[in-house]
Write a structure and sequence with these properties.
Chain lengths: ~200, ~450
């Protein structure tokens, strides 16, 4: 439910407010789907507006990864319905559990969304080990904690608060959404705000 | 390597997400006055209390410092000071706030406008000063960084004054968690706004940000006795609250709230549908409710007197219970800690009071409401003089009928200084916040 629907203050119209350049996307080496060659994270966070979140596929916490997944789905549907947003935004799911989110798993997820990749590509990436992951997570301020089940470690539970990062074409994080404010309407408003900011900049040039 | 149940996982995810709504959850533990964006919450007993302490001439090293006190009853050092970090000089240490990851505390000084960033996540029993922001005034044009309120990846700082005239017109500033200045947002001076600032309270579900108003450097650095006899100076106190549009960080509505409204607490009882906030006006000694009226318009209404307003008890800090049903109020002048029943927030009723010191300022309670902590210092030049200038942290247990003192740390006897703002910390957080004793995900295995 949006703030407006729940009796809160109305969301501002896109372009009537600005989004700070909070931080730049850190250097990180990643792999995509079942591809084996390493790539720079920046290749997934520049060129288009990017919506990025960290996840692990075992997650069943309703306030965890499924919530982010649902938000991404809704945003993507809205992008598909609006030709002006086509090919402007890319979605990135970054697994912080590479041991269990195998290349086959990530490729299967990617295949689910391959059909509309020209409208809004959805990438599923991860890294190799903690040595690669830890500095990336730290730079993004993505806190996680991992533990195995008390009954013998059959399943890994990774506690984390969902954060979704909106990144501009130059690789600047412009907004961070948590479960407390993960509203697709807000995200879309911010996407449109960044697009309007770009058009103003282009006109100025 | 164990194979992954791909199909089952995907089906489970899709089924789950289909049933999701985008509701929000309030904090589920910890102290009750944190930013809603704060993570790594304490689930049970807090372990340490961090007390931002003003240096005092002739007391110890005379420097402002962060004092760490063990508050875990099962610890051998329960009730003892276990660490101090002096930051050098006396700059009117005042309030603190956690970053959203709860790993760092930002602590401000109202006189020289310095902000000190302490790492309290790596080892909360031994906080470390990791960064000092010394150009807050130059970057923002504001003076007196007061409130530190976590946003995702950022810190929203509410100031009290300005560099031009050291009066009360001021604003909000946004920093990233690395301590880099991002943007400034002046308090409104039109449409009823007086430009003054103090506390910040955010309700993300309502896209709402509330601010309150106090006074500028000229007043808060003045001797209290001199100030109250200066009629012109006494006119320079905030008399407004502002409802901001959180998303745009633009003022939406200015409320008339005379008498310097200070701390802001949104009700945490979201499950009950609460969408109101409460504050106390220091000079007029009133509780004010900020709530939507029957037409859906936000209004600020005075709903109860605190003590006898004609005697100016000077309500300072307030602490709301997790269920939104009660509110602790400290009144500085009479040294009382008062409990109000606010189950009907339109009609708060005082149900308990206890003189907890000759002067008391901050009050914080645990999430379960069983523990209440009180400190003493308001401002260096406003604290009482002589024997009335008690400086302590007292820990109480609330048994439902009485505040029972568990321990006291005498900040003068311990040569620490003036005890001001408190923050709770739990156990250690490892560098990426993987709790000590568990396995990080890259190394965790599902097979034994």
């Amino acid at each position: 439910m949006s703030a407006t629907q729940s009796g809160g203050l109305p969301l501002p119209a896109p372009g009537t407010y600005s989004l700070d350049r909070i931080q730049s996307v850190p250097f990180s080496v990643v792999r995509e789907g079942n591809e084996t060659s390493p790539r720079l994270l920046s290749s997934y966070t520049t060129g288009k507006l990017t919506l990025l979140t960290f996840f692990y596929s075992h997650c069943t916490d309703p306030q965890g990864c499924p919530l982010a997944w649902a938000a991404f789905e809704k945003v993507r549907e809205r992008i598909k319905a609006d030709p002006e947003l086509h090919n402007q935004v890319q979605l990135v799911f970054f697994s912080f559990d590479p041991q269990h989110d195998t290349p086959e798993t990530l490729q299967l997820f990617a295949d689910l969304y391959a059909a509309d990749a020209d409208v809004a590509p959805w990438y599923f990436i991860t890294s190799w080990s903690n040595a690669f992951l830890e500095p990336t997570l730290r730079s993004f301020g993505q806190e996680i904690s991992a533990q195995t089940d008390a009954d013998g470690g059959e399943r890994v539970v990774i506690d984390h608060l969902v954060k979704v990062f909106l990144i501009d074409r130059q690789g600047w994080v412009r907004e961070i959404y948590t479960t407390a404010f993960l509203d697709p309407e807000v995200i879309l408003g911010d996407i449109q705000t960044l697009l309007l900011e770009e058009s103003k900049t282009n006109l100025g040039n | 390597m164990r194979t992954h149940p791909l199909t089952a996982t995907i089906v489970a995810m899709i089924v789950t997400l289909a049933s999701l709504s985008f509701s929000t959850q309030p904090a589920g533990a910890d102290e009750t006055c944190l930013s809603p964006y704060t993570t790594s919450l304490i689930k049970g007993q807090e372990k340490y209390l961090q007390v931002w302490t003003l240096g005092m001439k002739g007391v110890g090293d005379e420097s402002d410092k962060l004092v760490t006190i063990d508050v875990d009853p099962e610890s051998k050092t329960f009730g003892k000071v276990v660490n101090t970090v002096s930051v050098g000089g006396r700059g009117e240490a005042h309030h603190m706030g956690f970053t959203d990851d709860r790993k760092y505390i930002w602590a401000g000084r109202l006189d020289d406008s310095k902000i000190f960033i302490f790492d309290v996540g790596t080892d909360p029993s031994k906080p470390k000063l990791v960064n000092t922001i010394s150009d807050f005034d130059k970057k923002t044009g504001y003076v007196g960084p007061h409130t530190f309120y976590a946003l995702p990846g950022r810190m929203l700082v509410g100031a009290l004054s300005n560099t031009k005239d050291h009066g009360g017109v001021t604003g909000l500033a946004v920093y990233n968690n690395a301590g880099e200045f991002l943007s400034a947002h002046p308090m409104p001076t039109t449409d009823g706004g007086d430009g003054y600032g103090y506390d910040i309270g955010i309700n993300p579900r309502k896209n709402a940000l509330l601010t309150s108003s106090f006074t500028g450097w000229n007043n808060y650095m003045m001797d209290f006795g001199t100030l109250v006899n200066d009629k012109e100076a006494m006119k320079n106190f905030g008399a407004t609250m502002v409802m901001w549009n959180l998303k745009s960080l633009k003022p939406d509505t200015v409320f008339s709230v005379p008498g310097a409204p200070l701390e802001i607490r949104w009700s945490l009882n979201v499950a009950a549908g609460d969408d109101w906030a409460i504050t106390a006006s220091a000079l007029t000694s009133q509780l004010w409710l900020i709530k939507r009226d029957e037409n859906g318009k936000w209004q600020a209404t005075d709903v109860a007197a605190i003590g006898d307003p004609s005697k100016i008890p000077l309500p300072v800090d307030i602490s709301i219970a997790a269920d939104g049903k009660s509110l602790w109020v400290n009144t500085f002048m009479d040294g009382k800690t008062r409990l109000f029943d606010i189950s009907n927030p339109e009609k708060p009723v005082q149900v308990y009071e206890k003189k907890t010191g000759s002067q008391v300022n901050m009050v914080s309670q645990s999430w379960d409401g069983k523990r209440v902590y009180v400190t003493t210092s308001l401002l260096a030049n406003w604290d009482k003089k002589g024997d009335d200038n008690e400086q302590f942290l007292k820990a109480f247990e609330w048994d439902g009928k009485d505040l029972v003192e568990k321990f006291e740390v005498d900040f003068l006897k311990e040569k620490l200084g003036r005890a001001h703002h408190m923050k709770f910390t739990g156990g250690k957080l490892s560098p990426t916040n993987y709790p000590t004793g568990t396995t990080d995900p890259a190394e965790a295995s599902t097979s034994n």
